[in-house]
Design a protein that fits this description.
This protein has ten helices and 13 strands. The protein has helices at about 1-15, 20-25, 30-45, 60-85, 100-115, 125-135, 195-210, 220-230, 275-280, 285-300; strands spanning about 50, 55-60, 90-100, 120-125, 140-145, 155-170, 175-180, 185-190, 215-220, 235-240, 250, 250-255, 260-265. Strands 3, 4, 5, 6, 10, 11 and 13 form a seven-stranded mixed sheet that branches. Strands 1-2 form a two-stranded antiparallel sheet. A two-stranded parallel sheet has the order 7-12. Strand 1 (about 50) and strand 2 (about 55-60) form a beta hairpin.
Length: about 300
C-alpha cells in the first residue's frame, strides 16, 4: 500500500503542478504529499521532479511514469464509478477539452440535464492541445472541428459547419455580390497555425490561387472578431461561431464553399467508461435535433 500511496502522491503532484495543489486535491497536508514523493524517489533511486524557480518540472523518467499512473488511476476511477453507481450514472467527474464553446455547450447542456449529479470541467485550447490532453489522459472527451487519424483515438462525426468571411460594416466589400477572387490582396486577421478553420481557409485560397494580405495573427476567435470590428482586416470563422454584431457584416461570396466538420473524440480504450459512454450516447439525439432545426430554417428561407 505504501507503493500505491507514493504513486498517488506523485500522480497528483504532476497533474496539479505542485505539492500544495496536490494536497488540496487529495485532502491531505502538503508535507504529507512531499514526504510520500520523496520516499518513492528514495526507494527506487530516481528523481521525479526538478525545481525550476517556483515550479516543479517533471524529469524525462517521470513523464513516462505519469503515462502509466494516468492509466492506473483512470481504472481506479472507473471501478469507483461502477461500484458507486450500480443503478445508473449518478456521480462522477467528466473532463472535456474543446476548441471553442459553441458545439460543446449544446452537448454539455443536454448532459447536465440528464445527469445533474456529474461534475464537469471544460478546458479550451487549439486542436493539437485537445488531442494531446486526450492522449495523456488529462481529459476524457475532446470536441474538435476535424477528425483525428490515430489508431488510439475514436473520432465521431457530429456536424458540418460552413466557413463565413466577415468584415467591418464600413468595409468596401460589404453589400456587394462577391466572387472568391475579390478577396485578392485584402487585409485579413488570421488565426494561429493550430487553428483548423484557418487551415481549411488557407487551403481554399491555395486551390483558387488567391493571395490575401495577413496583417495580424491572433490566438482566439473572440479576439479576431474584435480586431475585425476595429477595422483591422477581414476575418473568417465557422458559421456556428459567427456572433451578430452591429459593427460587423458577413460577406456574400457566391462561389466560396468551405466547411469544417465537428467531431467528438476519446481514447478507444476508454469508450466503455460509464461516464464516457453516457456522454457519447447523447450525440445521436443532438445530431437529429440539429438536422431538424437546419431543415426548418431552410424551409423558412424558401
Amino acid at each position: 500500500m505504501r507503493f500505491l500511496t507514493g504513486l498517488r502522491a506523485f500522480h497528483y503532484t504532476a497533474r496539479c503542478g505542485g505539492s500544495t495543489a496536490a494536497a488540496q486535491a487529495m485532502g491531505v497536508s502538503q508535507p504529507t504529499v512531499s514526504s510520500h514523493v520523496s520516499a518513492l524517489e528514495k526507494q527506487f533511486g530516481v528523481q521525479l521532479f526538478v525545481q525550476v524557480g517556483r515550479r516543479l518540472v517533471l524529469t524525462e523518467f517521470a513523464e513516462t511514469l505519469l503515462v502509466m499512473t494516468n492509466r492506473l488511476f483512470e481504472l481506479e476511477d472507473e471501478a469507483r464509478e461502477l461500484l458507486s453507481d450500480a443503478h445508473g450514472v449518478q456521480r462522477g467527474h467528466l473532463r472535456i477539452g474543446a476548441v471553442g464553446p459553441y458545439n460543446v455547450m449544446r452537448m454539455l447542456a443536454a448532459f447536465q440535464n440528464r445527469y445533474p449529479g456529474i461534475f464537469v470541467t471544460l478546458s479550451v485550447g487549439d486542436s493539437s492541445q485537445v488531442v494531446e490532453r486526450i492522449l495523456d489522459y488529462h481529459v476524457d472527451i475532446g470536441v474538435l472541428v476535424h477528425d483525428v487519424q490515430d489508431e488510439r483515438v475514436e473520432s465521431i462525426p457530429f456536424r458540418r459547419q460552413a466557413l463565413r468571411v466577415f468584415a467591418h460594416r464600413d468595409h468596401p466589400l460589404v453589400g456587394r455580390a462577391l466572387r472568391f477572387a475579390d478577396l485578392e490582396g485584402q487585409a485579413m486577421v488570421v488565426r494561429e497555425s493550430g487553428s483548423t478553420t484557418q487551415k481549411i481557409f488557407n487551403a481554399r485560397l491555395r486551390e483558387a490561387g488567391i493571395r490575401i494580405k495577413p496583417v495580424m495573427e491572433i490566438g482566439s476567435r473572440e479576439s479576431v472578431r474584435e480586431a475585425v470590428a476595429c477595422g483591422i482586416g477581414l476575418g473568417v470563422v465557422s458559421d456556428i461561431a459567427y456572433i451578430p454584431d452591429a459593427r460587423l457584416r458577413p460577406l456574400d461570396i457566391a462561389d466560396f464553399n468551405a466547411y469544417s466538420h465537428a467531431h467528438v473524440i476519446c481514447l478507444r480504450e476508454r469508450m466503455k467508461s460509464r461516464l464516457v459512454m453516457s456522454f457519447l450516447d447523447l450525440l445521436a439525439p443532438l445530431r437529429a435535433e440539429l438536422a431538424t432545426r437546419s431543415g426548418a430554417a431552410g424551409a423558412a428561407d424558401d
